[in-house]
Amino acid sequence: MGMMSHIALGISAAVLVAYLMSMEKQVNYNILSEVRKKYDYIIVGGGSAGAVLASRLSEKDDVTVLLLEAGGEESETPLYHIPAAWFFLQKTEADWGYHTESQKFSHFGLKGNRSILNAMIYNRGSRYDYDNWASQGCTGWGYDDVLSYHARVTPFVDYYLKAAEELGFKIVDYNGEEFEGFAETQFTIRNGERSSTSKAFLKPAMNRPNLRVVPNSHVVKVIIDQKVAIGVEVIHGGRKYHIYTSKEVILSAGVIGSPQILMISGIGPKSHLDHLGIPVIADLPVGDNLQDHLMLPVLTRVNITGSVTEKGMLSWWTITQYYLFSTGYFSSPLVEVLAHVNTKKAMYAKAAPDIQFMLISGLPKVGDYVELRDDIMNEILSNLPEEGFAAYVCLLHPKSKGNIRLRSRDPFDSPIIDPNYLSDEEDIKTFIRGVRLLEKYMQTKTMQKIGVSLDLLNITVRDAHDFLSDAYVECYVRHMATTQSHPASTCKIGPPEDPSTVVDPQLRVKGIEGLRVVDASVMPVLTSGNINAPTIMIAERAVDIIL
Ligand SMILES: *[C@@H]1O[C@H](CO)[C@@H](O)[C@H](O)[C@H]1NC(C)=O
Ligand SMILES: *[C@@H]1O[C@H](CO)[C@@H](O)[C@H](O)[C@H]1NC(C)=O
Ligand SMILES: *[C@@H]1O[C@H](CO)[C@@H](O)[C@H](O)[C@H]1NC(C)=O
Fold it and tell me: How many beta carbons lie within 10 A of that of residue 92, not counting itself?
């Protein structure tokens, strides 16, 4: 339909302007041949966790820290800094271009029944990085600057909250005492720019003599001698280097990267490593227990104007507004309201929420970034109205679990990622309850007044079932639910005697000395929301444990 290419054109102009205006001072990064051969701490991965670790550990000036980052440095691409640009960052160098395996129970509406899965290695680049923007401020940096920033850019926020109140939900601050309810989204945006951990933590620390940050360094394995991690093997500029540690190697390479490095280093499920001919150093369930949030798009039509339209998004006014005043559509990720609800228990029954609603005040062209099947994509686009909003139904505590395995011994070969989405029937039931609640929400007086209609849900899957029956919703979910890109839990933390755990409560890899995992891989179960803030907290706690 060429819709994305139009958008791409508008964005290219914006990028050009952004580039000219972002001639900020470049930080001094190092190249690997210039760093020394031994550090107290070697941190692998410069995402949320790695940036926090590097910054905090290097606060002690008698400690030397090396941060190895596989990607380039952050300021290279101005697009990363524009909040609304998450629409356009998919399938770029910003993520690793990982795909899941073809799914047996889900993704039937997607090409090849599989989806792209960003692993949160680069927070700055992931498509669904609301986490970063919506990060929960509990990190002790610039909280006050950020918290006050509710990026309201359309009048829809009022309707969303009024309709929620009609149903009896509370309007809350989801980072405050009460979590359940509807809330205006809070963004970690400063002056209209995304504030990533790399900006917030790393840049201020960059000039410390005891901290070295080396981008474009792909760590391929941990060097282990007699069950002690003594260093890492890293490829940089086409050459192989060995760098050693006097204290620890810390893996913060993400939910896919950390288990991949561990398995290549000989730490993983014995039968799998045997199969690939990798000598087993520790037989641990690395890569198991993979969990991820799925989200279901529910696109609605409305009878009023004021939502973010394609035309509005691409107007020169929008671009000018952003660059002159840091306001307008580009300054906001456009997810204006988030709700966390428990669809099973009576309201406020002190149970963890099982569903999140994400209300986005415009109609995103979903298919272009989730690779919808052409027939479904065309059907949706041909009915897509100009004015409307999207209500995503997100499954917070999936029962379905998958795993990550090596495809080969080649560290540059992307691993086999099988989340096994929707393999547990319980997840379908939760989704159905979520959709039922959303239907009620759409029937409130407030929503009826703006003429909300769910007719856009009537797509090709209707052939087999009555529109909006349980069977219909199940079929819709199995076709249309896609990843929210919050994979977690592949190196589970827990008591060492529990055979399902990989790291102990001090985050040490069981049976190996001098090796920790510090990222979302260690979460035993997914948290009830976006995982960036919990990941930052894991890193903060790790620093306390390590020092
Ligand atoms: C995708 O799933 C559908 C439904 O189970 C199946 O008919 C189809 O063959 C699958 N396609 C691929 C490429 O696996
Ligand atoms: C939309 O608004 C028009 C004019 O106010 C009204 O006639 C029509 O019934 C509305 N449609 C819906 C679906 O609410
Ligand atoms: C769904 O769409 C089909 C095909 O356009 C149409 O025949 C049918 O009446 C619609 N059903 C509902 C409930 O809107």
Answer: 13
Low-confidence ranges of the chain (pLDDT < 50): 1-28, 74-81, 83, 85-95, 120-149, 191-192, 366-367
194: helix, coil or strand? strand
Q: Enumerate residues 6+ apart whose C-beta is below 8 A from 498.
A: none
3-class SS at 378?
Answer: helix
Cα gap 330→347, rounded to integer Å: 36
| Nearest alpha carbon, ligand 2 atom 1 | 303
Q: Of the ligands numbered here, which is closest to the C-alpha atom of 453?
A: 2
pTM given for the model? 0.83
Quick one: tokens of 523? 């979460």
156 within 8 A of 359, measured Cβ to Cβ: yes
Task: Please count the CA atoms within 13 angstroms of the CA of 521 that sit on its side-chain side.
Answer: 38
CA 445–ligand 2 middle distance (angstroms): 13
The position carrying tokens 């559509």 is 329
**Ligand 1 first shell, C-beta below 6 A:** 102, 108, 112-113
Q: How far is CA 223 from CA 39, 87, 512, in A?
A: 14, 39, 11
By most ligand atoms within 8 Å of CB, the mutation choice from 159, 300, 301, 303 for ligand 2 is 303
Residue range 441-487, pLDDT digits in tens: 999 999 999 999 999 999 988 777 999 999 999 999 999 999 888 89
User: How far away, in angstroms, is 314 Cα from ligand 2 center?
Assistant: 28
Which two three-digit tokens encode residue 509? Answer: 């890899």
| pLDDT at position 418 | 97
Separation between Cα atoms, residue 442 and residue 216, nearest integer Å? 48
**293 counts as catalytic:** no
The confidence score (pLDDT) of residue 463 equals: 79
Q: How far apart are CA 334 and CA 193, in angstroms?
A: 14
Annotated binding site for FAD: 219
- From the list 185, 205, 180, the residue with the least C-alpha distance to 132 is 185
Amino acid 464: pLDDT = 79
Q: What is the pLDDT of residue 188?
A: 55
Who lines ligand 2 at CB under 6 A?
303, 451, 453
Is the four-CA dihedral 193, 195, 201, 202 of positive or negative sign? Answer: negative
Q: Which ligand is nearest to the CA of 111?
A: 1
Interacting residues of 62 by C-beta distance below 8 A, sequence separation 6+: 210
Which run of H or E residues covers position 372? none
The CA distance from 30 to 32, in Å, is: 6
